[in-house]
Amino acid sequence: KKTRHYRNNIAFLDVIFNLFLGFVVLFILALIHINPPVKQENIKKKAEVLIILEWPKNSSHDVDLWIKDPHDEVVWWEEQETPGVFLARDDLGQINDTIYMPDGTKKIILLNREVLSIRTLVPGEYVVNIHMYNKRTSSETEKEVPITTELIKVNPYKILDKRNQILKFTNDEITAFRFTVTEDGKIGNISYIPEDYVFDHVSINHER
What we know:
The chain is built from one helix and twelve strands. By secondary structure, it is an alpha+beta fold. The strands form three sheets. It has a five-stranded antiparallel beta sheet, with no helix packed on it. A hairpin with a 5-residue loop joins β5 and β6 (106-108). It is elongated, with a radius of gyration of 28 Å.
């Protein structure tokens, strides 16, 4: 009798377990039906190319990164996006390096960097320029402001070019590099032929 009672308990537990398992499977199927998996083609495409500008982290100077695409569309601090190019941040030097923590305390992030991302590689030539919008000090120790500009291919990751240059005065404009994109999406023909176009878009007295 004791043996039969033990077997009956095992059978009862098996039935409960199978019912529970069936409920879990049905619940998962319901979730999938409500929220179907995101298809790969529906995932928003990320950057194909990054262009990164940096200058001394403790500098108060306002340096800007510009780009002109093959359709002569220009991305800069006032026009920060076209369908294929996006300016991630307009860095004003130390002016916007201050953040406030949840407790209200102030924290300074010493980093001067602007980033352009190219999300759609349109065939043709791109021209990347750097503009000294405002040199905020005339200190003898800061007569020259060193800047570094990188051209980076994201997929697969590769630094295509890196330039170290000098800015000296407010409204200085220099070409970091220019490059072409072929019909099949390859990047090449990197050169340093200068082209000024900043003042076609912003006057010397244009204020933020």
